[in-house]
């Protein structure tokens, strides 16, 4: 046995190694704790900033708001102004999630369980590239390319399904309506949901899949009984992540949607809805100090909505983890 080996295994060497390991462990623990605290501090700072800057608008009289802010509706309170914007934000985000989530799950299943390895790698790379495209590019594509393509489809919906309030028309031409925005947002959040769900599917225990196949299950039955139950909480978490992206999207909505401030479910009529983020971007450049405070108050509402969505996602994931134990 060499001298270095003997020194390492001696009582003094063991004590020195233990002391070094404890010091490194203590440093790592404090670094991780400081990072977690920093996140909480930043979140609290953002919330405090929004409240302080929005306070002049919160305590202002509705008459003062309508008199000093050109774009503020007359005889409307601050909550009455925020309400339709929050409604439009939630509506377009829900529509985009309803379109994107099933397609994303299907793509993730194909990549993880059906596609050959080379094709799966290529598709996974393409999905990651789609997630990196800037939102302004999606907005340009939506207003120049997608909207004209969708015009005949929206006209057909209005003519044949107009008895349903969602599709009552006449459909706007060009279709700068909330349903077009929802399609663009669905394309934007599709790669995010797909990437997360794909990784969740790949984490399914191999023994569970092989056991299902050994019992005579088809590939779809194996996916239905082994993969999807395991990935349920992951799918919900990925969907909430995509929903959070759709809630805060600005440029694509601003470039495509013809805005309005109504509680309207008409998806094919322009001038009905508007989102909080797009309204802030549209009104901020020419807003006076009270107008800026009003816009920050709407941003505070969006902050609360997004926080509620994230907390819901965490609760769903935690409940799924408890059921899986």
Q: SSE layout and pairings?
A:
Layout (H helix, E strand, L loop, with lengths): L2 H7 L1 H49 L2 H7 L9 H37 L2 H15 L3 H26 L17 H25 L3 H9 L4 H30 L2 H6 L19 H8 L5 H36 L1
Helix content: over 70%
Report how far apart the termini are.
Answer: 48 Å
Radius of gyration, in angstroms, nearest whole number: 26 Å
Tell me the CATH topology of the largest domain. Answer: MetI-like fold
CATH architecture of the largest domain: Orthogonal Bundle
CATH-assigned homologous superfamily of the largest domain:
MetI-like
| Strand and helix order | HHHHHHHHHHHH
The tally of domains stands at: 2
Please provide a brief summary of the model:
The protein is mostly helical and 325 residues long. The protein has 12 helices and no strands.
């Amino acid at each position: 046995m060499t001298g270095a080996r003997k020194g390492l295994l001696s009582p003094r060497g063991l004590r020195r190694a233990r002391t070094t390991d404890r010091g490194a462990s203590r440093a790592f623990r404090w670094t991780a704790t400081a990072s977690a605290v920093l996140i909480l501090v930043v979140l609290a700072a953002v919330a405090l900033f929004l409240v302080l800057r929005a306070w002049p608008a919160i305590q202002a009289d509705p008459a003062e708001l309508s008199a000093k802010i050109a774009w503020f509706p007359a005889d409307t309170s601050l909550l009455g102004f925020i309400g339709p914007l929050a409604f439009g934000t939630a509506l377009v985000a829900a529509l985009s999630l309803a379109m994107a989530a099933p397609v994303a799950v299907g793509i993730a299943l194909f990549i993880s369980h059906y596609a050959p390895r080379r094709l799966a790698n290529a598709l996974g790379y393409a999905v990651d590239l789609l997630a990196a495209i800037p939102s302004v590019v999606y907005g340009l594509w939506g207003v120049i390319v997608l909207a004209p393509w969708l015009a005949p489809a929206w006209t057909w919906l209005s003519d044949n399904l107009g008895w349903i309030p969602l599709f009552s028309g006449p459909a706007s031409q060009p279709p700068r309506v909330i349903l077009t925005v929802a399609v663009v947002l669905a394309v934007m959040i599709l790669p995010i949901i797909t990437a997360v769900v794909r990784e969740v599917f790949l984490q399914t225990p191999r023994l569970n899949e092989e056991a299902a196949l050994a019992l005579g299950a088809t590939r779809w039955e194996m996916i239905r009984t082994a993969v999807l139950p395991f990935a349920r909480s992951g799918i919900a978490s990925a969907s909430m992540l995509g929903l959070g992206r759709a809630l805060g999207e600005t440029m694509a909505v601003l470039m495509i949607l013809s805005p309005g401030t109504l509680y309207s479910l008409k998806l094919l009529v322009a001038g009905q809805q508007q989102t909080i983020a797009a309204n802030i971007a549209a009104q901020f450049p020419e807003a006076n100090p009270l107008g800026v405070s009003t816009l920050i108050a709407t941003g505070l509402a969006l902050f609360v909505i997004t926080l509620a969505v994230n907390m819901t996602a965490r609760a769903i994931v935690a409940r799924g983890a408890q059921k899986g134990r």
